[in-house]
Amino acid sequence: MKASQFLFATLKETPSDADIVSSQLMVRAGLIRKIASGLYIWLPMGLRVLQKVERIVREEMQNVGAQEVLMPMTQPAELWQTTGRFDDYGPELLRFKDRHDRDFVLGPTHEEVITNLAQGELRSYKQLPITFFQIQGKFRDEIRPRFGVMRAREFTMKDAYSFHVDQVSLAKTYHDMYEAYTRIFTRLGLDFRAVQADTGSIGGFASHEFHVLADSGEDDIAFSDSSDYAANVELAESISFNMAERQPPKQEREDVLTEGMTTCKMVAEHLDIPLANTVKTLIVHGHKEDGTPQLIAVVLRGDHQLNTIKAEKIEEANVPLTLASDEELKAAGLHKGYIGVDLDMPVFVDRSAATLSDFVTGANKVNKHTIGMNWARDASITRIVDVRNVQEGDPSPDGKGTLKIKRGIEVGHIFQLGDKYSQAMNATVSGEDGKPVTMMMGCYGIGVSRIIAAAIEQNNDENGIMWPQTPTVEDSIAPFEVAIIPMKSKEETVMQTATALYEELKAQGVNVLLDDRNERPGVKFADLELIGIPHRIVVSDRNLAEGKFEYVNRRESEKQMLSREEVIAKVCRK
Amino acid sequence: MKASQFLFATLKETPSDADIVSSQLMVRAGLIRKIASGLYIWLPMGLRVLQKVERIVREEMQNVGAQEVLMPMTQPAELWQTTGRFDDYGPELLRFKDRHDRDFVLGPTHEEVITNLAQGELRSYKQLPITFFQIQGKFRDEIRPRFGVMRAREFTMKDAYSFHVDQVSLAKTYHDMYEAYTRIFTRLGLDFRAVQADTGSIGGFASHEFHVLADSGEDDIAFSDSSDYAANVELAESISFNMAERQPPKQEREDVLTEGMTTCKMVAEHLDIPLANTVKTLIVHGHKEDGTPQLIAVVLRGDHQLNTIKAEKIEEANVPLTLASDEELKAAGLHKGYIGVDLDMPVFVDRSAATLSDFVTGANKVNKHTIGMNWARDASITRIVDVRNVQEGDPSPDGKGTLKIKRGIEVGHIFQLGDKYSQAMNATVSGEDGKPVTMMMGCYGIGVSRIIAAAIEQNNDENGIMWPQTPTVEDSIAPFEVAIIPMKSKEETVMQTATALYEELKAQGVNVLLDDRNERPGVKFADLELIGIPHRIVVSDRNLAEGKFEYVNRRESEKQMLSREEVIAKVCRK
């Protein structure tokens, strides 16, 4: 491509409404333009990237035997009424009426349509398993569209749906999809983690999210530094400490004056002990086995944070989890900031807190804490539970390495749906015994346009975008892989040499741009860095005299003077 | 592709709501499925065809330097309010409100969005001309969706928009697009005509429609049998007859009794003269130069049909053209069915009627006609005009050959928009002299999904679809080019030979299907004919013994026994 025949829509200024670095850079580099809140045009430069991502996603879907279809974006409301989602979905589902006053929706997802299709087309277990996918525009009426294409209203998604005669078959396709997703994000050169998206309770249906690690992510992801383990912090298990680690008591129990010290941190500093040697007690609403309300205590180490989702799994706790009010504490004879662990109510102790000995806790008296506290001797535990957020440095729950925590951007989600939709829509096939079987389903999404924003969040510097380093040059998603800049393009030899190199690289299948724009070199350099072209080759009179080309890699700053053969080898990654 | 791993959704029965042959065959062959009125799913078999058409369209757009973009399907109403189309467009424009009660539309076309983009991005005449295109889902809320994907509500379209500093530049790109469209439809193997879509008045802006000729078309297309000339019958010029052809009078004028004969046909039969020797006079509402209402007469040959669009171009006629009422005729002393040409009002005579001599007309008396009527001697002409529809056999207006008339399906439209949108949206660039210039625009549409229906309308037989014969095999839009059917697939040699041939063709880049489904041969043959696979190769024990393969071309019925080399040469069209 010659740059003079291609829309360069680069901007020097950062648009005022671009809120994160990828959104700023995508607008500045001329990949996208906003036309309204959450609605973007993909400009020629950006669409090249989008289509490259689409190609990789499509190939890997085909590799696992998924068949491509194209469903309409507009869907009749009846289908959504059948599954109940027309009412349940919430205002993200854009509902509208056609000219005949019939209800429709703009598809944010296509479970209903595809299940309706499966119901009509699939007759026998022999046709299963079967997987359909599409790459298509979706619409979600976000209340506050933001982060550019990351949380846009109209966006490009790959959605796939699989149909099965039983759970075993579903699990196999789910596994294939897990592997396909892993290959997709690996080929794209992204630093990502496949994250357990539920607690994986036995017999339940699995779900994994694929997150690209980047500071602007909306989720905290805990992952092992030495294995594949990764989970959302909200769901990551804090592994059971070995109870044998609990030391026998060495100190006597004793109350000490801690006037006005209502936090573990204040107490630990005052006593000059590690925060990890204190515990805090939270009193929350709960109930007895027969439903009678009662207060219950949840005990954590002073340096740990309560994980509400985990705490709500305590059977005796009310959902949603709510703290007891000051009045309720008073009525129970407790003093806020000084609550201990020796209590007249069920006491649920976090795994880490349960292994402590000679620890410090509230004394159940105003302005007093107890030191030398020990479980069994001084207080009893109703049940040991996992109720805290994992922390960096915790051992990984799979026993391999320790945990790191980073923010993640969700770019993919695979999900074992079971028969939720097929049941509602009566999607059955005749089984091996001739009797109807309700199909099991899986669904598998990838935010195709979102991937680009995530890739940029992970790969950028002060000069602009750096595209991910993909394992093969063919999979690079840079809009152009190489830019050739003729300096003083009016000089005939320079332009001839530049054009000849351009033609040769093109003939070799390299995605190359000849920057023949009538602009100063400084402007071109800045544009190409902003857009993130991986390889820059400058052709100049002076260097040609020595038979050399000036080469700069976007990820390195130093210039190299290379021969024609060397420069070709560089950009072909040979 | 192995058929066992691909969704065959063929139907034996014709769906009751499929109204034309292409719609019936597309559903029966499992290319599409309807989910609601005017909304279709493209099944794997159909999407393969759609993507092949898209590829050809994309290549030819790129060949003329058009740059691909992707605009959102949802568009803010403000843009449409700027051009006035939010109110003007009519109910085909689907309008909706988002959750914040803001107005949006579902894009049936994208002039507003692209002009808004051009207004923001293009600064200088040096950036022009520039052309953008996209291939994308569009929505038109048709009052009565019909003809399958031909007149669906959601459909795939290629829309392109060009921007220019002046009319000369617009005309050049328009010409390039005309050529690109011609290449697209030629590559697709379609019998099509580029049709003048307006009267081409000098200085006006040109517009051409591209029609695929097929009986189910909605337009009548007149085209020369010996040149490129083609026009919508409504607009085709009836060429000026040479007035020298008008013979001098031979008969005397005479009134004859024609009781109850109020049509030219009745009179011609009664007098035993050609219908072409009679004329009919239509009295319509008109006005004088100062606007005063008056009746005017339009005279046509008895065998010709009035063309309203042309008649409305008579300056003295009212628009829309309306016939005088019986009361108005009476008041003017005229008798319906017996009106002549010697009248006390302006008389506009069609070119063909003006060359007649000794013709028959009404006598302006009840139950009487005049024979031996002659212009000049018996009646005067206010102006000779072109107000009739052309007919098959008429000379072609370009002077080459004679006209044929066939029905056409519009699959493309190119249009010189001028500055309608750029003016309304203030889309200017700085011109060579530094002053702002309002850009000139062209727009260029192709109904990508409609092409497939049109191709099938033009290519089918009683057994199903026959895909168009494309100039090159690479451009074939058949979902698969070749099907290999192993007979008795349980016999090892048969299956091995079939698989080996399949692998070899695949390696040669042939789009081949191995029909390994567990079905009877008859079912497979019927399916493959319905789907229209161009080449069928049967591998059987008996033929293998002779080293032969049974080959059938979809367009021929006879089987050929061919060697392996011959069969490969056939399907590769070598």
UniProtKB/TrEMBL annotation, chains A, B:
Entries under SUPFAM superfamilies matching the protein: Class II aaRS ABD-related, Class II aaRS and biotin synthetases, YbaK/ProRS associated domain
Entry's Gene Ontology cellular component terms: cytosol
Metal-binding is among the record's keywords: no
Domain of life: Bacteria
Catalyzed reaction equations: tRNA(Pro) + L-proline + ATP = L-prolyl-tRNA(Pro) + AMP + diphosphate
Classification via Pfam families: HGTP_anticodon (PF03129), tRNA-synt_2b (PF00587), tRNA_edit (PF04073)
KW Protein biosynthesis (keyword) present: yes
GO terms assigned for molecular function: aminoacyl-tRNA deacylase activity; ATP binding; proline-tRNA ligase activity
EC number: 6.1.1.15
Keywords for this protein: Aminoacyl-tRNA synthetase, ATP-binding, Cytoplasm, Ligase, Nucleotide-binding, Protein biosynthesis
Top-level EC class as recorded in UniProt: ligase
InterPro entries per record: aa-tRNA-synt_IIb, aa-tRNA-synth_II, aa-tRNA-synth_II/BPL/LPL, Anticodon-bd, Anticodon-bd_dom_sf, Pro-tRNA-ligase_IIa, Pro-tRNA-synth_IIa_bac-type, Pro-tRNA-Synthase_IIa_type1
Main location: cytoplasm
Gene Ontology BP term (one): prolyl-tRNA aminoacylation
Domain Aminoacyl-transfer RNA synthetases class-II family profile: start-end pairs: 46-468
PROSITE patterns xref list: AA_TRNA_LIGASE_II
Subcellular locations according to the entry: Cytoplasm
Protein's job: Catalyzes the attachment of proline to tRNA(Pro) in a two-step reaction: proline is first activated by ATP to form Pro-AMP and then transferred to the acceptor end of tRNA(Pro). As ProRS can inadvertently accommodate and process non-cognate amino acids such as alanine and cysteine, to avoid such errors it has two additional distinct editing activities against alanine. One activity is designated as 'pretransfer' editing and involves the tRNA(Pro)-independent hydrolysis of activated Ala-AMP.
Family: Belongs to the class-II aminoacyl-tRNA synthetase family. ProS type 1 subfamily.
Assembly mode: Homodimer.
Comment text on domains: Consists of three domains: the N-terminal catalytic domain, the editing domain and the C-terminal anticodon-binding domain.
Protein name: Proline--tRNA ligase
Organism expressing this protein natively: Psychrobacter halodurans
Gene behind this protein: proS
